[in-house]
Specification:
The chain is globular and about 75 Å long. About 6% of the residues have low confidence. Helices cover 44% and strands 9% of the residues. It has a 6-stranded mixed β-sheet with strand order 7-6-5-8-9-10. A 4-stranded parallel β-sheet has the order 2-1-3-4. The protein folds into 3 domains: 139 residues, Rossmann fold (3-Layer(aba) Sandwich), CATH 3.40.50; 152 residues, Rossmann fold, CATH 3.40.50.720; 103 residues, Rossmann fold. The relative contact order is 0.11. With 492 residues, it is α/β, with parallel strands linked by helices. Strand 5, helix 10 and strand 6 form a beta-alpha-beta unit.
Amino acid sequence: MPAKKTRKNIRAGRKGKPARKPAKVRRRKPARKVSPRIQKAAPAPVPEERLTKEQLIERAKKPGLEAMRLHPFYRGKIEVVAKCCIRDLSDFAIWYTPGVAEPCKDIAAHPEKVWEHTIKGNTIAVVSDGTRVLGLGDIGPEAAMPVMEGKGLIFKYLGGVDAVPICLGTKDPDQIIQAVKWLQPSFGGFNLEDIAKPKCFRILDTLRRECHVPVWHDDQQGTAAVTVAGLVNALKVVGKAIDQVKLVLNGAGAANIRIAHLCLQAGVKGENMLICDSKGALHAGRTELAQTEPEKWALVHLTNPQGFTGVLPEALRGADVLISLSKSGPDVIHKDWVAGMAEGSVVFVCANPVPEIWPWEAKEAGARVVATGRSDFPNQVNNSMGFPGIFRGTLDVRARTITDEMCLEAALELARCAEDRGLRDDYLLPTMDDWEVFPREAAAVGMKAIEQGVAGITNVTRSDLLRMAEKTIRRARGEIKLLQKEGIIKMP
């Protein structure tokens, strides 16, 4: 019988063959876009509250009261959570014996495979001996644990980095160095935390030189990176060139010593820099420093060639910038000292819990831009804007160290993030709410590591690193939110 005519077989042509189904057109997935630079406007100015010291101290007590309630409630801030599937108990033959023997043999034959088969590639240790914890001093390793856990939580939420607190039962710098070296097989890097000076300098320098994974001291390097980012933008606000300004550093502890070095690297000229400790300016006549505090003595040879021997009030006369990390205020720095600075001066007073001078007093005295270490004043200089992104980028390229140039690159990228939103007297740096900052820092740090030849992974672009960091950080933040939503992390 002849085939019945239908629309389909008429279109098919002769012999009454049914028409072929039209081929499906495969639509290519659009290329994933790289996040653009932050274009959000800077937050609206917030009027400064003129609170007394007593009111500020009372406000500062509130987080501590909540901490005493919530720390026992959660019994720790971080925990181990599985990241592999467990379909049923037979999967343990893959994740443990006998199957696990195969990746073990692979690593034994090719040690670099440890980065692929294990957690090492995204896991660091936060190491402390508890000798300089916040403003509490030498409180011991057990008492330091809550701080190290908190650091680990920030690493995870802002950088997607798994961080394990390691509080050591020794104060001996040689034993600390040896302990970190022994732990290298298990960790992709180390964050040194709350270790007293001067031993913190030798510990960092030795481990940076002798370890094959990155070692970082946030009290030094993290503070320096974020401070320099703020300085770069402050000078843009006041319209001054970094290689022309006179800069005074008040305090010569671990943070300011590293800040001094990074400022020099960023373009501040040594002849324009003065560093003051409790005895006055560092100068060549203080020869005792060569034996007692070699880190200060090293800066003598890099700064103050004119041999200024005065104290802080004299050093500030005509200065463009003050960066102070000394002791808690107020009244450590006086209004008349600030009044004697150059027009359009920049004042960073970062002591905690109270800055060396109230911000409004510094402004009344003539300062154009003021920054502090507090979140309740504009222009907070906070390490948390640095270390999560810096370590993210370091791990993503398997860098074997974190160079000073990588720190500076992070500082400049952090500064650009704020500049993209619009700089003002009261807006120099992004805040932790601006999570897009951290992937950008990570990409900048990773590319600098590749450029300097310290990266183990080199066949990636800036866009690749940006996407990798965004994916990892989004996952970490989403995981925490999901656990809260499902009630696994209980709300207090």
